[in-house]
Amino acid sequence: MHAAGRRTCWPMRRRRKAVARRAEQAAGRLLAEAGEVVAPVDVERLAAHLGVVISRSTFRDGDVSGMLVRQDGRSPVVGVNDAHSSHRQRFTIAHEFGHLLLHPGREVVLDRPVRVNLRDKTSSTATDREEIEANAFAASLLMPADLVRSELQRLPAVVRQDPDRSAAALAARFEVSDSAMGFRLINLGLVS
Is 71 exposed, middle or buried (0-12, 13-18, 19+ CB in 10 A)? Predict the structure, then answer.
């Protein structure tokens, strides 16, 4: 039974690594193209580089963080729930960039076809491949691996030795939540 369990987990782990690698590469390409090389990554500047309009407003459904709307012949629009924290808004914008660059979206017909991706509480549960990939893209975009490693080394040794303190210090530098930075540090193998 254990061997069978390992066999089913192994391909899943390999798929997740491939998804993360694809997201990391796409985020790296965007950062290089736009010349974003310092923390915090400027998502507004990246939006301009991509030709994306960012629209902030309070959403009726408080669980919805954001959405991406694509319509032929028009600039893509990232809608962001401005009732959420600035860190969550930055992650949401980066997440929607991931959908824009990696996923076609679902077609919704209003008066003409439109493609939409939503980011809500389900998005962070890591159950849908596209959501997992968009989250990995956002993490890679806002917290580039080489930049995180470099900034971690710049922290005083006493801070580096404490995973919570190092995550908090880096989160402030990268303008992300402590938990997002904590997960990023773990995923990069920099803390356990």
Answer: middle
Classify residue 121 by its DSSP letter: T
pLDDT tens-digit series, residues 96-141: 999 999 988 766 555 455 566 665 565 555 567 888 999 999 999 9
**Cα–Cα distance measured from residue 130 to residue 132, given in angstroms and rounded to the nearest whole number:** 5
**Weakly modelled stretches of the chain, pLDDT under 50:** 1-7, 111
Please state, in angstroms and rounded to a whole number, the distance separating the CA atoms of residues 174 and 170: 6
SS3 23: helix
Give ∠ CA 14-176-43 in degrees, rounded to 5.
90
What's the chain's length in residues? Answer: 192
Residue range 16-142 forms a domain whose CATH class is: mainly alpha
The structural domains of the chain, with segments of one domain joined by +, span 16-142, 144-192
Element at 28 (helix H, strand E): helix 2-34
Cα dihedral across residues 133, 138, 144, 145: positive or negative: negative
Question: What per-residue confidence (pLDDT) applies to 14?
Answer: 79
59: left (phi over 0), alpha (psi -120 to 50) or beta: beta
DSSP secondary structure code for residue 69 in this structure: E
